[in-house]
Each structure stands twice: as structure tokens, then as C-alpha cells.
């Protein structure tokens, strides 16, 4: 050992000596200068600041109903004092006609929206359409004959962990700002930010005001819309964990909204669960991956394509899917009317199934009803579940039954803590399959106590009232 150690040191020393001989002194400024300025100059003009304004109507003082207060204070307490809420965010020009993409939460409930370009030109914006479930919105500005810069929407599926990216936006309202980082992760799904979760994670500094801004690659292509950050504590600043909506989803939502104003997503007609480390070997997989199908909607696209309970979907159009969120994301980025190729493992063999991409059917009839009277469900709006309603509510399952659509605050249903998305299964141990069944039971004046069985998420709950 005492002989080998010096030999090893000598070999390393010789290696470094060889490197030293190969190094040369830079001969020009270009050889020592590293800068992202060419990319920034290319993309920055297409990233805009968004300022919103909302008038909040204050309620007149309830004390004005008292004549003594009216005598002393006159009308001063009776005049509502409106106040203006202002907020800021960012956006990206994606079409020369003035089409801007931003986050839905940036423009939500706004009365006025102003878009400010990097050259300080200002335009009033109108909302073309929005999609709360993906947190995306499309705006339009009219610049007349004035030229508008745009960003090319790139291929977010080509991003790899470690790729360098730039984030552009208006953090804290200080003005347009550029930060640099790498792609920390792709297809992040366990962050609870939207219904279709497959986020790009980056350590490029993103702060309040960056929402809706651009995440670009070093070719100047838009690969994501900056959406949110993890910011522990009260400061709300960046800690190097930011999330962007992939360009693949931006393309899909933009195409839907600009072609009709309404987002219409394909429906697979099958649900499943993630393959765990305990089950992948029994499913004859090389590792835990894919979605184990445990429900196939009769007559749906998946059933027609031959998908069966027990199959494991491992890829869509050649793109791997790790879990149900990834599967929903991949299907949601495709266009209605086309087809998708599902790679499926069945009993150890890989098969390819061609699925027609159709919108979710709005059947059976919803029979949406506002429940009144004096029952546990007073103040609830209920409907018969169908695939279209499940899509609207952001529910994973479209199993037949009665679902709670809305709860009015301050009502009996609200006090009993019923929630939108609850599925009503049984009342007093009697199954209720339709809204008509539920109404008939609620009209029964002989019922003095209620045992209501619900399904909420993956749990079955029973609520007992009276008796």
C-alpha cells in the first residue's frame, strides 16, 4: 500500500500537468464573456406586466336601521364606501394579433386589466377566455397597426433536469426582471396547485408578481408559464422552488380558447391508481411505474379501444406516465377529435391501443336541482353525475350517482358541512340513485331522523341527524 499511494499521486499530478499545458490565455473579450443578454434581448419585449383593478363594494353600516344612530350620524354611515383592490402579475405575448397568456389567478374577478409592454406602451385588455382548472387565461389587446413582439411556444416535453432556463416577469412590481436557474424537476404532480398537475420545477428566482410570466430555454422558446412558488413563513419570498405550467398545456388551452372560447378536453373513460413498489413485480413490470386501471366506463373511448381493468398504462404517444396525474395531463394536452396511442402492459406483455379522443358525454341528464324546504340538504344544489359534470367539477370519477354541486352559505346543508363533490349513496340505508329518488325521499314527511351515507374523496362517511 505504501508503494501504490505515491504512484497514484504521481498519476494525478501528471494529469493536472497535462491539463495545464492544454490551457491557453483567452485571446479576446468574446472568449471570456459569458452572458444571456442575446436571449434576453430576444424574449424580453414579449413579456408584459399586467395590472388589474377591482372595485369592492362595502356594505352600509347595519346601525343605520337604528333611528338614534341616524339622528347623530345622518347619512354618513349609510353611504357605502367603495374601495379599489389592485394587483399585479405578468403575461406573455404569443400572437402578433395581441393575444396574451397569463395565469387565471392574476386576472380573476378583475374589473379592469391593463397590459404594459416592456417599452412602456399601455393597453386595456379584454378576457378572451380562462380555464381555472389549469390556472391559465387568455387576454387580448388592440395595438392597431403597431407591431407587437411575440414568443415562440417551444417543446416543454424536450426539457430535461439540469437544463438552464430563464424566468422573466415583474416581481413585487419593481419592473421587468430576469432570473436564471436550472430545471430542477419535470412532471411534478404532488404539489396541489391545479387539477392537471405536471409542473416544471425550477430554482430560477420567482416571486409574487412573476405569476403569468415566461420560463424560456436558452433558444428563446417559451417552455412554461411561471405559476407559483413554495414560500414558507410570512415573507413570501423565493426559496428556490418555483413551478411553471408546461408549454404543452399552454398550447392546448390556447387552441381551445382561441377557437371557440371554451376549453374542451378529451375524455379517456378510465381511472386507476399509481403502481407502488409493493405491486410492480406481480404486474410483471421492470419498476414501479404507470397507472393500474381499476375502472373502465362502459361504452367510453377506453373501453372501445380494448382497455381492461388490470391493465397498466405506461405511456401515451410514447411519453411515459408515472401516475394518474401524469396520465390525465397527457390526455388533457391532446386535441378532441384525434387519437392517442396507449402503451399498455397486460400480463407481462406490452400492447398498443388506439383511443379516439372524444369530449365527455353529458348523459345521463343532470336534473340539476336546488333543494329547499326543511331537510338536511336545504341549501344544496345536486345533480346526477355524468362524465361532463365530473370534468367541470374536477372530479376523477364519473361513477353514476347523485353529487353535490354547490352549497349556499348559512343554510342547513352548510351547517351540516356537506361539500361540493360529495356523492350521496344512501339515506336510512336505502340506496338513492338519482335526483328524483332523493327528492321523493326528502318529501317523505314521516321521516324524523336521517342517516346519510356519502362518499367524499376515497372515503365513505355516514352522517346521523335527529332521532
Characteristic terms for this protein:
globular; alpha+beta; Pdz3 Domain; 4 domains
Integer average pLDDT:
86
Query: In the residues, how many domains can be counted?
Result: 4
Distance between the termini: 86 Å
Just name the CATH architecture of the largest domain: Beta Barrel
**Protein structure class:** alpha+beta
* Unreliable stretches: 1-20
Sheet of most strands:
7 strands, antiparallel
Helix residue percentage = 10-25%
In terms of DSSP E residues, the strand content is 25-35%
Number of strands: 25
Rg over alpha carbons: 28 Å
Just give the CATH class of the largest domain.
Answer: Mainly Beta
CATH topology group of the largest domain: Thrombin, subunit H
Q: What would the principal axes of the Cα set say about the shape?
A: globular
Q: Please work out how many helical segments DSSP would assign.
A: 11
CATH homologous superfamily placement of the largest domain? Trypsin-like serine proteases
TL;DR?
By secondary structure, this protein is of the alpha+beta class. The protein is built from eleven helices and 25 strands.
Written overview of the protein:
The chain is built from 11 helices and 25 strands. It is of the alpha+beta class and 467 residues long. The protein folds into 4 domains: 44-141, Thrombin, subunit H (Beta Barrel); 156-258, Beta Barrel (Thrombin, subunit H); 270-356, PDZ domain (Pdz3 Domain, Roll), CATH 2.30.42; 369-466, Roll (Pdz3 Domain). Strands 19, 20, 21, 22, 23, 24 and 25 form a 7-stranded antiparallel beta sheet that branches. A 6-stranded antiparallel barrel has the order 1-2-3-6-5-4. Strands 7-8-9-12-11-10 form a 6-stranded antiparallel beta barrel. The protein has helices spanning 4-22, 29-32, 37-43, 67-73, 104-107, 247-258, 301-305, 324-332, 387-393, 412-415, 435-442; strands spanning 47-56, 83-95, 99-102, 112-116, 122-131, 136-141, 164-169, 177-188, 199-202, 214-216, 222-229, 242-246, 270-274, 291-296, 312-316, 319-320, 339-346, 349-356, 369-370, 380-384, 402-407, 423-427, 430-431, 449-456, 459-466. The model is unreliable at 1-20 (pLDDT under 50). The longest helix is centred in the first third of the chain and has 19 residues, at 4-22. The chain starts with a helix and ends with a strand. The protein is globular and about 90 Å long. Helix content is 18%, strand content 33%.
Amino acid at each position: 500500500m505504501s508503494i501504490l499511494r505515491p504512484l497514484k499521486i504521481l498519476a494525478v499530478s501528471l494529469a493536472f500537468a497535462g491539463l495545464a499545458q492544454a490551457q491557453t490565455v483567452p485571446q479576446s473579450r468574446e472568449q471570456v464573456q459569458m452572458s444571456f443578454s442575446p436571449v434576453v434581448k430576444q424574449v424580453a419585449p414579449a413579456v408584459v406586466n399586467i395590472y388589474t383593478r377591482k372595485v369592492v363594494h362595502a356594505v352600509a353600516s347595519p346601525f343605520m336601521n337604528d333611528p338614534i344612530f341616524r339622528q347623530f350620524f345622518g347619512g354618513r354611515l349609510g353611504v357605502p364606501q367603495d374601495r379599489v383592490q389592485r394587483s399585479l402579475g405578468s403575461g406573455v405575448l404569443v400572437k402578433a394579433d395581441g393575444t396574451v397568456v397569463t395565469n387565471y389567478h392574476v386576472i380573476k374577478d378583475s374589473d379592469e386589466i391593463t397590459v404594459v409592454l416592456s417599452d412602456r406602451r399601455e393597453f386595456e385588455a379584454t378576457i378572451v377566455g380562462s380555464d381555472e382548472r389549469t390556472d391559465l387565461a387568455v387576454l387580448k389587446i388592440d395595438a392597431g397597426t403597431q407591431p407587437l413582439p411575440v414568443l415562440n411556444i417551444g417543446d416543454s416535453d424536450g426539457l430535461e433536469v439540469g437544463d438552464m432556463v430563464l424566468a422573466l416577469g415583474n416581481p413585487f412590481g419593481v419592473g421587468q426582471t430576469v432570473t436564471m436557474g436550472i430545471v430542477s424537476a419535470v412532471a411534478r404532480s404532488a404539489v396541489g396547485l391545479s387539477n392537471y398537475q405536471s409542473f416544471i420545477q425550477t430554482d430560477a428566482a420567482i416571486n409574487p408578481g412573476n405569476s403569468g410570466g415566461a420560463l424560456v430555454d436558452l433558444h428563446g422558446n417559451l417552455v412554461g408559464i411561471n405559476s407559483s412558488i413554495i414560500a414558507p413563513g410570512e415573507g413570501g419570498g423565493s426559496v428556490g422552488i418555483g413551478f411553471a405550467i408546461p408549454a404543452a398545456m399552454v398550447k392546448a388551452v390556447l387552441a381551445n380558447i382561441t377557437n371557440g372560447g371554451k376549453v374542451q378536453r378529451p375524455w379517456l373513460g378510465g381511472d386507476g391508481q399509481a403502481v407502488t413498489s409493493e405491486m410492480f413485480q406481480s404486474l410483471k413490470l421492470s419498476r414501479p411505474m404507470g397507472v393500474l386501471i381499476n375502472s373502465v366506463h362502459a361504452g367510453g373511448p377506453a373501453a372501445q379501444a380494448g382497455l381492461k381493468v388490470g391493465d397498466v398504462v405506461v405511456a401515451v404517444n410514447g411519453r411515459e406516465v408515472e401516475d394518474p396525474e401524469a396520465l390525465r395531463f397527457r390526455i388533457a394536452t391532446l386535441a378532441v377529435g384525434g387519437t392517442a396511442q396507449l402503451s399498455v402492459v397486460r400480463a407481462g406483455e406490452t400492447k398498443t391501443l388506439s383511443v379516439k379522443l372524444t369530449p365527455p358525454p353529458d348523459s345521463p341528464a343532470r336534473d340539476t336541482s336546488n333543494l329547499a324546504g326543511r331537510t338536511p340538504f336545504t341549501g344544496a344544489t345536486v345533480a346526477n353525475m355524468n362524465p361532463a359534470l365530473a370534468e367541470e367539477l374536477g372530479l376523477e370519477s364519473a361513477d353514476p350517482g347523485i353529487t353535490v354541486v354547490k352549497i349556499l352559505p348559512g343554510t342547513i346543508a352548510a351547517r351540516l358541512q356537506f361539500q361540493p363533490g360529495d356523492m350521496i349513496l344512501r339515506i336510512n340505508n336505502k340506496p338513492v340513485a338519482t335526483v328524483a329518488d332523493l327528492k321523493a325521499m326528502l318529501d317523505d314527511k314521516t321521516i324524523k331522523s336521517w342517516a346519510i351515507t356519502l362518499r367524499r374523496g376515497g372515503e365513505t362517511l355516514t352522517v346521523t341527524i335527529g332521532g
